[in-house]
Amino acid sequence: MVLSLTPGIAVVFLVILVALVLFATEPVPIDITAIGIMVALMVLEPWTRVSPAEGVSGFASSATITVLAMFILSYGVQRTGVVQILGRKIAAFTKDDETRQLGATIGVVGSISGFINNTAAVAILMPMVTDLAHEGNTSPSKLLLPLSYASMFGGTLTLIGTSTNILASDLAARLGEQNPAAFGDLHAFSMFEFTSLGVLVSIVGTAYLMTLGRWLTPARIPPEDDLTEEFELEEYLTEVVVRGDSPLVGRTVGDALADIDFDVDLVQLVRGGQSFAEPLGPKEIQADDIFAVRTDRDTLLDLIDAEGLALVPNVDVTEEELETANEERNLVEVVVAPRSSLMGKTLATANFRERYDATVLALRRGPEFIRKRMDHAELQVGDTLLVYATPDSISRLNVNRDFIVAQEVERPDYRESKIPLAVGIVAAVVALAALDVLPIMVSALAGALVMVVTGVLEPPEVYDAVEWEVIFLLAGVIPLGIAMEETGAANLIADLLVLSADFFPPIAVLGLFYVVTAVLTNIVSNNASVVLMIPVAAEAAVQLDANAFAFVLAVTFAASTAFMTPVGYQTNLFVYGPGGYKFTDYVRVGAPLQILFAITTTLGIAAIWGVTP
């Protein structure tokens, strides 16, 4: 019997609708939206039935604490440099064979993502994969999208592979405890409870990416050795010489640039056979100084006429010339990371040049290039900056959570001597949880503590390791699930979806839940999708007299594998700029994989756990 639409359900639906719009459009960061949801539910307690204690319960949730501890464990492994060492060995094996490169990329990230956070795995491995492509004369686009996809299905191998699994486990346990009569078969997931299904979808996903997916994945970025060619800067980089009668002579570079109303960047100064780069501001301009400049042709002509400059003939400013002329400077690609504090800011307002002693030569947003007025372009997640900077500046960018440097950067402070210890700690955490010696939350917290005590991590690094935005997101959306249960909103949605059982068998309804969750996850946060859909799936299973665990697992896997949009999963945004992808590339490559996974997951659950008791 379908429930009536009570005022409480109507209020919860309104909160959900507003939340979905905000999650999809992101006028504010998603963690701020999540906190807004939490506050709204408490303020509207007479209708939502979420008390203040329940409203903030997400901060004390075992899922939130476990995810926090896993961030610390993942970072401890990262600080040892073991993944970079593995990358070098892979490069030696794959050489210029694209099939080997693709297979190694999928195999490595898929395996690692089962035991460290999959978003961290992609952030760590992306520089290795980009270098692998350049060294092997392969388009990075052919490897980066598979890197993202493989990290997602790799995350389904274990409970700790992704925050989605941990959150789903916590929600399932809470439902089972609150209503054992209806949800008696729901419980917290064990470490390897769904590994068999994870292995199945990983095999299917790997086979797809190595065959049809490989053919569908476009080569958006040409396999160029020269980054200036890759960013198509041939017409935007050139050299000019300062004439003796130039009004710039005797002025500092900083003062001259402040008075010049042209879109131009001074990349390098050559004086008397010696090259100088940032900081150029204090240097006094002299006659016969040669500047490498970044500007377009029309602006260059205006600049030459107005400022007494002359074009240096027959000069091509390439990556090799820039790095040879100034051996202390390198060209690198830098990606604006998800939840970066630079989102919505410009290079000018962020003081990028002054803060990092670096020059941005071009900006790539998906397949599009921005080379004019870059200082005034608002930065977006996934934007790729072509940066000319010193190794020290590149190292600072590499350790900054706002960026991902898309090429391998040597870090002298890797704690390679701690590799056995870090790997051993993670293995112990997994073993203790798998053998039910300790709950996963306790073993993960203990492992994080041991990493600090043994020197794998320094105490201040613990706070840097945690992606606090994810923690606040989890804490904010968990009360939404409580409101859906308390008001009957979950039951009402379940009633509507169960109507399909009049036309389809239970296994088809199970598949429908996978599809609905997958579509939702491709639009909004994966964790928000789990919170919304798990109570509904559990209620639907009860009404169908079906296996609630099977329905919850379908939702969990669907929320962990969002292939069809750049915004569906963080890892898709990581590779959007470096791969030069279009939005439609995710649909073209991801939609067949999403359909394949819907079929595989549904049949796999039915075969392993059964749809009905």
Notes on the structure:
The structure is a single chain. This protein is of the alpha+beta class. It folds into three domains: 69-165 and 185-223 and 418-455 and 483-613, no CATH class; 235-315, Regulator of K+ conductance, C-terminal domain (Alpha-Beta Plaits, 2-Layer Sandwich), CATH 3.30.70; 329-405, Alpha-Beta Plaits, CATH 3.30.70.1450. 58% of the residues lie in helices and 8% in strands. It contains 30 helices and ten strands. The chain has helices at residues 7-25, 30-43, 45-48, 52-55, 57-60, 62-80, 82-94, 98-112, 118-135, 141-154, 163-178, 180-183, 195-210, 212-216, 227-230, 253-259, 297-307, 319-325, 352-356, 391-399, 419-434, 440-453, 459-465, 468-487, 489-498, 506-521, 526-543, 548-560, 570-576, 583-608, and strands spanning 237-242, 265-271, 274-276, 290-294, 309-311, 330-336, 358-365, 368-370, 384-389, 403-405. A five-stranded antiparallel beta sheet has the order 3-2-4-1-5, with helices on one face. A five-stranded antiparallel beta sheet has the order 8-7-9-6-10. The chain is elongated. The two termini are 22 Å apart. The model has no long low-confidence stretch (mean pLDDT 82).
